[in-house]
Predict the structure.
Amino acid sequence: MRLIVCIKQVPDTAEVRINPETNTLIREGVPSIINPYDMHALEAAIAIKERKGGKVTVLTMGPPQAETALREAISIGADDGVLLTDRAFAGSDTWATSFALYKAALKIGFDIIICGKQAIDGDTAQVGPEMAEFLNIPHISYVKAIEDISESSITVQRMMDDGYDVVRSKLPVLLTVVKELNTPRLPSLKGKMAAKKAVINKMTKESIEAEEDNLGLKGSPTMVKNIFAPEAKKDRKMLTGSIEQQVDQLLEELRRLKCV
Amino acid sequence: MRIVIEQNRCIGCGACVESCPYSAILIEAEKASINEYCQLCRACLSVCPEGAIIEKSEESDNIEVVDLSAYKGVWVFAEQRDGHVASVAFELLGEGRKLAKELNTELSAVLFGSTEAEAKELIRWGADRVYHCRDRIFDSFNDEPYSQQLIKLITRFKPSIVLSGATPIGRSFIPRVAARLRTGLTADCTALQIDKDSGNLLQIRPAFGGNIMATILCPNRRPQMSTVRPRVMKRCDYEPDRQGEIIEIAAEGLSSNTEVLETHKEASYCKVNLQEAEVIVSGGRGLGNPKGFEMLQELASLLDGSVGASRAAVDEGWIKYSHQVGQTGKTVCPKIYIACGISGAVQHLVGMSSSDIIIAINKNPEAPIFNVANFGIEGDVYEVVPLLIKKIRESK
């Protein structure tokens, strides 16, 4: 089984705050981490390899420092890492990102590609399905359990709004996975040694043979017009007085709203 | 467009490094430089004391323009489960009507599977036309036939805007459609507007894990595609006598490498039924432990409501994911939303800020939740909530 896990290095967004005075983002001291959903994708791939044999390759697109994310993934159990890095990728939206990753995946070769359901910085959940379309392979989103896997097919549980579906797909396939799927393991001592020694395979726009028109800003159909802080409500009212007085005022409002 | 740092003006102070949410700026040899992680968010522009960071637009930057005038009309993809059209489709028709009116164009719905009766419902909820593909292949959801058929329809009829619910179905197969059509797709929008000058669709969504909002454009390609959060848009009035056109479309040449073997409904989902509740009492990290939710459940029962939670509380394992409200959970718009010990990160706010009345209880007077609250109480939830429960009991 040839497995590719797509990962993304992201700022730990739970730590990002807005400076209320300047309305800018405060990023000081915010660590870069592997996107948490991708950790579940990695765990799933390692578990499949343990059952069926094969090789797990982690793939990321980003600046040179994203290499640390690949080494971390190797310390957890991936066999090797591919870093897709080139100035030509700057400003990529999900279309251009998926396109570059698709070209890289073709070069690497695979039976199963596994991605996290979305990255916590962009939250789009689009790169996985878009890659699958470019590759002309099926995909299954929101996988919460893997029931069965053979040389030619895989059966999984797909999370839906009202429960879940059991879905079987032919291979090759792309899966996007949710947290419920598994508990990611920690790096092993042996893994840490391997991560130190590992040679990261760097790919550029030339090595994936991608046309420049499909990459970066030029390849991106969408653009960010502006960013702004969310609006505050105009009729807001802080209640005052002792806690008991405030609760009384609140109760009065609830009565007025015919809620009590 | 690019963001560049004018090297001769850069003093290497590092202010921009801290402002960048993507770690895209590094200081090398006492000068700042921007790398491939740059998402063009412009967060750094205002922080540079020297004004050395500038936007640079270049002709060659832009993607090739399609013939924009060839694309007309607003489409809503109406997803169905077990033949029933999902309520998000009716909400999108409400929003689609507004957009179509502003653009002086028609509103169409696309329905795969389901029945003629449901197609007629789409017209009564605002569609001028329904493209209906009744083939049995659409009874259960498989990404490939759904995307193949929608790609065919869009290629043939050339709509300018295509909206879909940001649901497990829409978020799964719509990206395939956008990829194939070489056009832009904006995920999880919470507001849509038409740009008065260009007629482009302004797609507004939370960014950076929800700490700030972004307006996204797809100026040079068509259709402009968005997935939209359920329960954010309002339905328009139901007109039982409204007439429209239903166009039957055959499904030909579709294939699927996936097959749905079984479908399981979760009982707990029905019991929580967050999205239908008129009152929601929600808890966050400020509760400190899972026992806090028992107290909130008591308050919710007294108000005939349901219990919600922030991502922080769900991540702590205090309550199940099915209760989660926000960007990665459910969007709700009850009559009354009571946020207890929730600080109010934007990813939570986008899931509940369209509630009619928001009541916030939090120890920290600076908590952002107070910015969206109609009524705020600064205080300990364990002091306020039990008192409120007691007083409601007494008044009953």
